[in-house]
Amino acid sequence: xxxxxxxxxxxxxxxxxxxxxxxxxxxxxxxxxxxxxxxxxxxxxxxxxxxxxxxxxxxxxxxxxxxxxxxxxxxxxxxxxxxxxxxxxxxxxxxxxxxxxxxxxxxxxxxxxxxxxxxxxxxxxxxxxxxxxxxxxxxxxxxxxxxxxxxxxxxxxxxxxxxxxxxxxxxxxxxxxxxxxxxxxxxxxxxxxxxxxxxxxxxxxxxxxxxxxxxxxxxxxxxxxxxxxxxxxxxxxxxxxxxxxxxxxxxxxxxxxxxxxxxxxxxxxxxxxxxxxxxxxxxxxxxxxxxxxxxxxxxxxxxxxxxxxxxxxxxxxxxxxxxxxxxxxxxxxxxxxxxxxxxxxxxxxxxxxxxxxxxxxxxxxxxxxxxxxxxxxxxxxxxxxxxxxxxxxxxxxxxxxxxxxxxxxxxxxxxxxxxxxx
Length: 422
Description:
The protein is an alpha/beta fold. The chain has helices at 32-38, 42-56, 62-73, 78-87, 94-103, 117-127, 154-165, 182-187, 198-202, 232-248, 253-259, 261-284, 290-298, 310-324, 327-351, 364-381, 384-398, 406-421, and strands spanning 17-21, 76-77, 106-116, 131-135, 137-140, 143-146, 172-176, 190-194, 206-208, 355-357, 362-363. The protein folds into 2 domains: 17-230, HAD superfamily/HAD-like (Rossmann fold); 233-421, no CATH class. Strands 4-3-1-7-8-9 form a 6-stranded parallel beta sheet, sandwiched between helices. Helix 11 runs antiparallel to helix 12 (261-284) and helix 12 (261-284) packs antiparallel against helix 14. The chain is elongated.
């Protein structure tokens, strides 16, 4: 249930479809109303944050949020509204994305529940959108009064566009993030959740997290019609390499622990706690910390439905291994999970042909790389007589077909085996 809308000019040309973009949380990396209220003092800012959390967990309606939020905002000067919107950071490559969509003859509409029409008019002109629809705002001198009582559903707005363009709902692709978009995403032919809340995840055909708006294109336009730098494989590898780089950072902790074990334990424990809280907020659709930004850049497309537990298992595996065993044991064990795992994943993706467990995407080629890298690490760090048996144990633990459990089992299990062998 949404806003009174103002319709931009519609061309007489024929279109292949319509792409509907939400603004707050999608094009904008922050919420317009929240930024307005932030300048009204800490008390009001805390109130709008609480309202936002209640809305994202589906405890209050969009109407209630807007009504109470704009009460907290009070009088809003026209210039203040425009300047606030201009200062909000946007996701990257919006203009390039819209240019490609329009080249492929898609009609692009931006629709927002909480941003006034005249603000969206400027935004639509800036990013070259074909149409905009926002909340109605009446001017009283230099100030505006926002009408939050007569809200029109987004699907009703899109229905009107479809009638004018001679299109149907099978021609609609929508991109949204918050619960107000759930109905639109369900009704669209393709519903894309972009940094979405928990509710929107359930109703999305595709979930994309990150800061690069170009990532929506491969789900709308066939790859052979896209430049190489906009194809899905390009985005996949950027995420995968970034992910493996973070994974490899685990190799730092045994060396830190060697000189100051309490420090390494404190860092790991704090990081795990912060990550867990951050993931809960990210899953709800709210960025809690810089960790959420890192997670979004590192996520695989098949990990978008829930909390990402891989880093939790990895952190716990390293933490337990360092706490329980001595340096001569935890050093090779942590290096194996940090380095061998990264190398095996890259080789498996690039050259893997023979699957061990297809559901886990484990390949013979990747597992052999893991074994070879683990053997080298072990030959350099332990008694050579133990290297091959320990590498075999680590490789077996790595291919266990339980999602991400290898991050926990490989370091601790390898360290335990080495301890018993000694």
